[in-house]
Amino acid sequence: MRPEATGYGVAYFAAEMLATRNQTLEGKTCLVSGSGKVAQFTIEKLIDLGAKVATLSDSSGYIYDPDGINREKLEWLKDLKNVRRGRIREFAEKYPSAEYSSAESGDLDENPLWLRKADCAFPCATQYEINRRDVQNMLKNGIQLICEGANMPITGDAMNLLIDRGILYAPGKAANAGGVAVSGLEMAQNSMRFSWTREEIDDRLRVIMKTIHGACLNAAADFGTPGNYVNGANIAGFMKVADAMIDQGII
Prior knowledge:
Rossmann fold; five-stranded parallel β-sheet; three-stranded antiparallel β-sheet; 8 strands
């Protein structure tokens, strides 16, 4: 479950965010950037939770598939990227329902992937792949939620715009913590000379992401910025370290 953990955790965190507004991922159209392990397993869990994923990308460009990326297409993608090390344009060659756009086409100040109409966005590719103009485009197209799979994929001014508009926005330090969490579970298993099943690990991961989400939400509310997951993640992380240092007599 270690390869899956970060992507699965991102989807679980997004589900918890939507639950605060009495919504689920069922039937939601999602944009996912990237095509590596985090993107692959974010898509896999989004499919499990009933969402439709319409995009994938790599450094050469992106594909948009209005029919959605189903399990068959996802398994083909895994072989393309993990085994054959191919390019994302081959996805469109394999599946005619998908449209490929080169990274060299379009306006350099905006990423055309984020121009597509959708409910949720999951940047899982690289740092600073979403700028303020991209966010403005997403807001025009009805985005309700952005959940980071990559590390710092959104620029600072773009992040501030999301917060100002009240969009559900999860920073990677909280949303993509599933990989680190399952590494911790791996260490626990090794220490106990014990092995949990895949299903048990997945269940534990879901509970961990629910707990992280709750910690962020509570910290944000306690310190006067309810619903601000950036402040909540920063404060909850700081308090956890500070309390541990106090408990151990370091400060």
